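Hi C.,

You asked whether I'd gotten around to modeling the 101-residue construct. I have! Everything is below, sequence then structure, no commentary in between.
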Amino acid sequence: MPTYEYECQKCSHQFELVQSMNDAPKKTCPKCKGRVKRLLGTGAGLIFKGSGFYITDYRNSAYKESAKKDTSTSASTSTTTPAPTKEAPKASTPAKKTGKD
């Protein structure tokens, strides 16, 4: 859920409020009950939680071994089964004219 920033028009109190995008904007200040306006925020940065987002996360010995197995398996299967080839159609010789035409 996004964090919205508000400022009171009466007492200039600034505060943040975590709201759903579907929620109506806040109308009153929690301090003086004056009218508030929603400020334009810069937004939050993208946060990746957990492992696997950096190239170094996967570079342990187990990963390297499985990568070697994958490449050797795919290389051996591609060399044992040749790709099907189509033969070029044979050129037909034109019929000879007999002169009776």
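If it helps when you're writing up: Residues 3-38 form one domain.

Thanks,
B.
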